[in-house]
Protein 1
Amino acid sequence: MQSTAAAVAYFFMLISFYIDIGQDMSPKYYFPMFLPIVVGFILSQSARSRLFFRRDNLPNLITAVGWCVTFPILYTWTYERPWFMSLICYDAIVGTAIFLMLSNVGVLLTAIKCPRLSAALMSASNFFCLAIPFIQAVYYCMTWHCLSPESLMALYMTNWRESIDFLQATFGFFLLPIVGVIVFLLSKAYNVHREFFSEFEGDWRQRLIALIVVIGSVATLADYLPQTSIAELWKDVTTYAAQLQEYKTDYDQRFDELTIDRSSTLASKARGTVIVVIGESASRDYMKAFNPSFEYDDTPWLSARTPDEGFLIYRNAYACWSQTVPVLQRALTEQSQYNDKEFFNSISIVDVAKKSGYHTYWFSNQGRYGEFDSATTLVAKTADESRWTDDAYDFSNKYDVELLNDLERVDGRENNFIVLHLIGSHIYYNNRYPKDFKRWVTADGTGMALATEAYANTILYTDYVLSRVFDYAREHLNLQAMIYFSDHGENLRISHNPDVFSFDMVRIPMWIYLSAEYRKVLPSRAETLLKNRGRYFTNDMMYDTVSGILNAASNKYDAGQDFSSTEYNFDRATLTTMLGRYRLTDDPDGAAEEF
Ligand SMILES: [Zn+2]
């Protein structure tokens, strides 16, 4: 009787909790759970020959409740609206099944008659089962946002070194206390389990009942765990990664089908080199040349270029997302926010350059990831020559100036298309520049890893690297055009996490240089690019824009997305960012568009 009452109490407390956080608890979702839960509880309590709600079962109860409530409540707090009940009931089922399983595994472990080992095994099981809710809770505490597909993707796509950087950046000084709390809780759980194993011996009849419940709960978990919200999110992320692999599959056929009229391309009209530099985490809000009210003069070289003929600075450029890989897979290929093309069916700027007669190079000072190549790396590897400064599958700790060594190996008499991928201003800022560039420091000289002063130093250093690339290419590589844009921006307090979006994360710097010869052979392109200086642009249209600058219109080219074309047909009112989530007119700091 008492054990039935305990089961019913558990069930109704759970349902009340969901109703309390605003969930629609329609009976069709929770009623089918009722009977199996009550039966499971009655069996388990007879296996343990005691009630469930006792101190010796507390670690298992906490583990269960962790699963039942973490995702629903964090989702509700984040979005202030209910999640799907059909998915929340899976969290409830999984949490309860874990509770039943652990409680009965405890009974089975009495068979080995070693309280210490049994208690250790039980604590380890609690830790293992709680790991996922715990990660969600800690992530929430640090960002005030629940784990989303985007944040999981970032965790999934990043290499281990970057993950450690990410953890340090997110948790900072909290990392040690968090580990301390885990150790403390584990030792508490161990003591509680030990008490249970010291006083409870169990007989074969109890173990038999426990075995039945364990088998039932494991079968339930196998069925329902993959259907929980967090598991579904993880599946989305891994499916996406597999799609990236698809990019490779039909690559040769895609490339063969790309047709370009080579008689009118830039390569055929003016021999020389075109360079595309992809910046990292540079926000024009914190760059003097773009924002004169920024307190540090961190772009002396770029500011001095402003009056140069053929040097065009764009003050209204935006990223299409706030993280590297989703941005670059669009910037580099046909895929954009405005078409429904898929990355893995798309032609890239490297393909277009190759087909229009360039020797193609990709030099990167970023990591190149591991087993699942990121979109960037997939494109990079299609270049005739690709090289990473740090040749390990790892995150680069080298300074961007290293890329100059690669430039020196390029033959200046050829037609060259070179992509340089900088590490730029990626956190930690103080790791991104040599000490000669430590021009600004915080008042007391500490906390430089994430300080505005250090960020300004990274921009100052990028300004220097760009000047070196520009000067070298003009002197030795017959530079015809150079394009610089950042993948996304940065918020100096919270970096560039899409879960806590602000517009400085997508307000990016962009400039284009066109040589005198370029302006002579393709005057209409040069004129249009000059005229568009006050217009709005998002960097997912970079593929068509680079195609335009190369004058390499193809069967895979959209003039409407080409900033160098008179047919460019977007403006501030029609452009979006964060993959369509925001309009650029939502940016409170956006300037009036000049046509
Ligand atoms: Zn980035």
Protein 2
Amino acid sequence: MLIIKKVIIYLFKSMSKLFSICPVCDAQVVLAEGVEESEIISCSDCRCRLVVEKIEKNTAALTKAPEVEEDWGE
Ligand SMILES: [Zn+2]
């Protein structure tokens, strides 16, 4: 019975995960728990910086983050 309970908890936890599709390479992106709108994440496939535009139930809309000019440090 304990095992069944654990499986149910696992299923519930996995359902609460956010999935999205990378707008750059179309790979499935799994968002970390507690991620918020306008947060910047990176695609594990193409390493692109992505902005979390909108979060809905189990999905999130992602857009490519604007390129950051690395001119600081000079
Ligand atoms: Zn990607």
Protein 3
Amino acid sequence: MNKTTVTIPISQSGNYIVSFPNRCVYCGQPSETTIEVTPTYTEDKSTTMTINKTTYRFPLSIPYCAKHARESSRNKSILYGVFFLCLLPTIFLTWRMEPSSFGQALIVFLFYCLVAFPIGILMQWLVRKILSYAFPSLSDTGIVIPGVIGGSDSALGISPSIRITSDTLGRVGLDSNITISFTNDEVARECASLSGGTYKVPQK
Ligand SMILES: [Zn+2]
């Protein structure tokens, strides 16, 4: 699937404007509803001694026609369901270890999560491939990636990601941006011009 990307700058004060045309981002028909999608960005200032992570949330209201709003929600439920099923064994395995304190339980649990996250992502990818025969729009729906390892929310026809850099004064860097991939090229172009972003067609 070729995707058009739109890159929208984030200002040094952390502000950004993402405007969509009043059209379904997937089919381009008039929009009837919006769905909130929240990509996240995790800033990692951890040292070898301490864990210091801050997660920033960037909510976006995505316009859809009624049909694709329903499909987006359904596809998202399928992918989230697969992901959480892959995380369930971590709870069981942590319990099996019989940790002596809550702190120890937490460390064991986080360790298992490190293993379970990539499995959860791989399984979503597999399930998406297998079920796309029954639900064609599933293959145009982004995979769920938890905030701590990248942060991408699932939605139909659109896949946002955040990049934040900091300059020498610790402010938001000038090359910070939101990049959104679209399956609908026309909607992508309109979003770029409404949001003051740049538009890039996929390379063949
Ligand atoms: Zn639609």
